[in-house]
Design goal:
It is built from 13 helices and no strands. By secondary structure, it is mainly alpha-helical. Among the domains are: about 110 residues, no CATH class; about 60 residues, no CATH class.
Length: about 270
């Protein structure tokens, strides 16, 4: 028997309301983010103009395109859904202490900061190596050092990278022993990684409980429906049943997010 027309109207209305809310949020973000995107596009255009005739530098810029898109672009959404963004952030956190150690060793050996940055870009694998190589390429093209370091922070996008860039910018303006400061930053980063690993071990049970509680209702629903379809028919064939299913889905998603937030500890 076909469901009443009013039930489908309610479903379509709820879907339209959700889509409208999402569109409003995306539009607001795009409006607020337009200045950052314009600055990134202008910086990329200036670097591309300066890179004319410099094949090696132009190859470096193509290898590390840097920021310029927002999180709601198809490529960024695909990266977020597949976990690529999370894996990239984890790789940056693992590689950054070694990169900082390379900077410290190069500075203690008597090299300038620009030469040390270029050395890190050549020796470190992506994504950290590509980001540092781009900074060295921008400096070779005559870009403003502060702007190049801001680009490094934007491409890496982690708190540790922000500390590193801040220390390098302060040293350029006020002077001081940059090698000692960077050595301290490398030690702090390693200690944060160790502490974060301990926190993940301690919160593993909570995260597993959240996953089990999130998967249990759908599994029970599918299992009971497969064994006794008539028993579950009122939930899918009546407006009240569909309303209860929608309420259950929303509650399940909200509870899962709440449990994940409770198990997450910022380090």
């Amino acid at each position: 028997m076909a469901p009443p027309a009013g039930g489908w109207t309610a479903w379509l209305g709820a879907g339209a309301a959700g889509a409208g809310s999402l569109a409003v949020l995306l539009g607001a973000y795009a409006w607020l983010d337009r200045r950052r995107l314009a600055e990134a596009s202008g910086r990329r255009a200036r670097l591309a103009a300066m890179a004319a005739g410099h094949d090696r530098v132009e190859a470096v810029l193509r290898a590390d395109p840097g920021p310029g898109g927002a999180w709601w672009t198809p490529r960024a959404l695909l990266a977020a859904l597949t976990g690529q963004r999370r894996r990239r952030a984890a790789a940056i956190e693992r590689q950054l202490p070694d990169a900082v150690d390379m900077l410290v060793n190069a500075l203690r050996a008597g090299h300038a900061l620009s030469a040390a940055v270029q050395f890190v870009g050549e020796q470190q694998p992506p994504p950290v190596g590509a980001a540092f190589a781009r900074v060295a390429a921008e400096q070779q093209l005559g870009a403003d050092p502060r702007e190049a370091l801001d680009g490094l922070q934007a491409r890496l996008g982690t708190l540790d990278a922000r500390l590193l860039v801040l220390a390098m910018q302060i040293q350029r303006e006020t002077g001081g022993n940059l090698a000692e400061v960077l050595a301290t930053i490398a030690q702090v980063v390693r200690e944060r990684l160790e502490f974060r690993a301990q926190v993940e071990v301690l919160t593993a049970e909570s995260r597993l409980s959240a996953a089990v509680l999130a998967l249990l209702p759908p599994i029970l629903f599918v299992g009971v429906r497969a064994m006794n379809p008539e028993y579950m028919a009122p939930l899918t064939a009546t407006p009240a049943g569909r309303l209860l299913v929608g309420y259950g889905v929303v509650s399940l998603v909200a509870g899962t997010l709440l449990l994940r937030q409770m198990a997450r500890v910022e380090v």
